[in-house]
Each structure stands twice: as structure tokens, then as C-alpha cells.
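User: Sequence in, structure out. Go.
Assistant: Echoing your sequence, followed by the C-alpha cells.
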Amino acid sequence: MNSRAVLRSLIRVAGAVFLLVLTSHAFAGFTNEAETIIGGVDVGDGRSASLADIDADGDLDLLFQGGGGAIRLYRNNLIGGGTLTYTDISSMLPGGLGPSWSAAWGDYDGDGRLDVFVGQSNLSGASGDLLKNNWPAAFTNVSVATGLNDPGFHQNLAWNDIDNDRDLDLLIGMEGPEEHEIYLQGPAGSFTAVGAATGFQAPLGTRGYGMAIGDTDGDGDLDVYISTCVLGGNIRNNFYQNMLVETGSLAFVDIADSNGTQNLANSYGAEFVDFDDDGDLDLFMVGADQQPSKIFRNNGGNQFTDVDTITGHPLLTSTGSDFGGGRAVDYDNDGDLDLFFHDHMATAGNHARKLYRNDGNWEFTDVTTAEGIANTNQGGYDSAWGDIDHDGDQDLIAATGSGFDERVFINDASTNGNHWLYIRLDGPSDNTTGIGATLYATLEEGTPQERTLRREANTNSGTFNQSDLPVHFGLGEVTEVDQLLIRWPDGSKQGLANVSADQYITVPYNPGDYNGDGAVDAADFVLWRKGLGTIYTQADYNIWLEGFGQAVGSGSNASAAVPEPATAWLLLALVPLVYYGSLRSSNFARTA
């Protein structure tokens, strides 16, 4: 154990009693401040909400989705205005938008502004709407021009690079009768439907109420899980394994019947997240119509185990009335993913929302009342989480039905003594916010408490909304991330070391910069060689070699100076001491 690790352990032990006393006291939890923040507005038939920084000022703006006039856009005044209030700027949306359940944010055209696809119920011949962000001018509807005027009933939406060509494609989980669809982006921002041709439209490929997206088998392409719900149940869910890497072309095989995830009658929200810090993605699924919710543990090789069989009891103490939306979220910043549920129907139990704290070992405790978000049911189907007040914890925006004000629950977890880190990804021009990236944060390296947290960059759509958010890590009592590794959607990697907690940082795309000093140089070769076979592969060497001499903002990669593999070893003589100093003190990440 190195001296730095020993020191951290001593500090950890010395402060343990103080932290125990500190965190044993009840904090305020959540308070509904909708009256102050959005003016106590009732948008009407609110169904869901999503968050994105539409004006690139650093705070999260808000979109409500719903029926009739419930589609409302609000700008956050926190940064620039100094107060947490939202201004209704719905006039910036084009006319003619029909009833909506879902929305997905992503910079599809690479101009640095977040665009949004608004999913439609598509009554009376309406079609889906791709709204191009022209900030500070209004949004314009470019659905017809891009080929995204899809006529289906869109329940779930997600932007992702599903075919590994670097640009953003659009995935749609349908209500039906239309079947699920994938639109691949081609030249000049045009899109082509390929769902049928790629095997994404299995029989009964409808009723897509939840959509989990992630690389569950670790092969370098994105797999998709679609959960279903229908009166009477028993429409099968779909686990689409992406065969792109194996075959060289985009194609899906539905493996839900053979991998342990096909045993739910009715389900809504779905997400791929890493609950147990083992580095692979588990499946979280929300049970609808008083069906049990589930976590399926990833055993490797796309095989899963129902966690209920591990613990010997159901995952939750309640099935609610009709859970719709759900989210795995670290609401208390302790480093574990907790569970949130949005309940739609006011029947037995009458719980508008439920929050379960993760106590470890697949055990979850109902803290809904204790944390201050218990209410009688007021409709809506899904909620959005994000740090809207910029204090380091996750706040909650809850859509409601007609006749009820929307809810804005401000989280007070930033006062509980736990630490946090947010990472904004400044991606390449074809995916400027890094949708689909995976981030790994190693904490307390070299100690018995060492763990590595894995978080995805807005990859899942969950239920009805794909927000565009900074990547959030709750860190518990840890004050520094020892190693932060970013795997970009194109498969390239870069890293940072010794990142201080309790800040927002922005990481520019610079593959091959493994030590985070802003340059791809010989020091990064040292790290690659040290991590070869564990963190890094031969492909990462090739990426380093291609970028050698490149610094962020330099405008060229100095290709004439790029060394061959044998020559690279000679460069080590140039950095025997400089490297170690830069690794410990230099991270090329902009704080914001």
C-alpha cells in the first residue's frame, strides 16, 4: 500500500466517528418548491418531463410532455440570473405539436445546440417532430426535411450511435400498431428506417413502455431491452443483442427467452446500470399494474439472474398502484444507486411516487415519507432527475395530471456530508455531449475499500424521457476520485487522475490522453503500457499513436512526429520524472 493510500485510510478512520454522528441526524430531504421555481403551474395533462441545457449556459432547462397544451418549455435562470426560477419560453416551440408522451434530447447535427425529438401520439395523421435548436432563435420543425416524420405512436425514444459510425441515430419504442423502429443517420443529417431489415421488429414488437440501452456483453456495440405492458399482460419483452461487432453489420437477435430476463407479465421503465460495481450492466425494470419490479444481475455473457433469487425475497416492499416511470439514481450521494418510481393510478395504497434507499447487498428500504416526497396520487407517468440548483445533489421534477400543479422537489442531500462529482462531456462534432459514453471512477485506490463506479452518459431512455445531463457520481465520504476513465462512444479512451470532489468539470474529447494533461504524449504511453491487458488494449495504443503530439485546441496532430512502436520506448527517457509529477497534479479538465 503506497503512502498516499495509507494517509487516506488514516484520515478515513479518524473521521469515521464524526461522519457517523453527522449522517445519523435526519436532514430535510426533499421540499416541494414548485410555487417559487415555476410559479405553481399546472400544464394540464402532464405525462412526463425532461431536462437539457438548451442555451449552453451551464444549467438545466425543462420540457414538459403531455396532451393538448401540456407541452411546455422552461428556461432555467440560475446561471446568469442568479436565482433558481424558470421562465416559460414555450413560444419558442413551433406550432402544430400534437399530444406527446416522450422526448429525447441530442445534438443530432453537431452544431453544439441540443435538439429534441418529441414523440407523438399521432392522432389524426400527425407525425413525430424533430425540433432543431437555433438558440437564441426559436426551434424549427425539421422532421420532413430529415426523414424523421415517423407516423407511429412513440412511447420511448433515444438518441444513440447504434451502428458505430459515430453520429447519432434514433431508436423508437412504439405503442403500436406500428412496430419498434430504428432510424440511422446518413449524409447531411438524413435518416433512414432500418428496423425491419435489422431484426428490430420481432412479432408483437409493440407496447414499448420502457427501453434500456447499453453494451451489456462488453463487445463494443449497444444492446437494447424493451419492456411491455398491455391489459391482461403476457406480451413478451425483447432483449435485442446487437450483432454488429460479431458480424460486421447492424443486426439484432432477440435473446430474452434464453438469458433470464423474460418472466414479467407487465412492465414499464427499464434501464441498464451497474448496481454492484462489478463493471458490467445490470437490468432494472419497473413492474406495472401492481406487478413486482425487478433487478436482473448481469452474470456475464448476456446472462442474468433475478436478484429476488439471491436475497430470497421480493425486491421491494410495495408494488404500488401502477408504477410507470422509474429511475436508478444516487439521491443521497453515497455512491450507491437508489430506486425511484412514479405511480400513475390512485388505487389501493395511493402513492404518487416511491423512493427506495440502496442499503447494499441488493437490499432496499422505503424512504418515501422520510425523505419528504410522499403524496396522494396526482397522475402523470414519469419524472425527471437532475441538479437544477447546481448544489451537487439530484433534484426531482414530477409531472402531474390535469388539475394539479407540477411538482419540483429540491433535494437537500448536499448538506449530508457526502461528496459528489459531475462531468460534462465535450464530445466530437458528431456527438457533442458524448451520448453513450461510459465513465469509471475508481475510489480509495490501493486500500481495502477500493471500488470502481460505472455510470453511463444518457444512454438509456428509461420511460418516456431521455434527458441530456452531466454524468453524476455520488462519492460518499471520499474527497477525491483517484482515477477517472472515459470510454467514448467510438471506443476510444482517455483518463484523469486525482480529481477533487464537489465540483463540475468539463472534459474535452482527446482520445489517447490517458493522464489528463491535455496532450497526447509519451507520458500517456507509459500509462498505456502499465494498463495493457487490464484497462487498455492494443487498439488503445493505436489511438495513442494516431493522436501523438495532439493537444486540445492545437488544430493538428503533428503526424510527422508520430513515433513507431519501437521508437516509442525511446521517448520514455524524456519523461522519467515529469510524467509522475504531471500524473499527480495535472488534469486537463475545465471546472465550471
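User: And one key feature?
Assistant: The CA atoms of residues 204 and 235 lie 7 Å apart.
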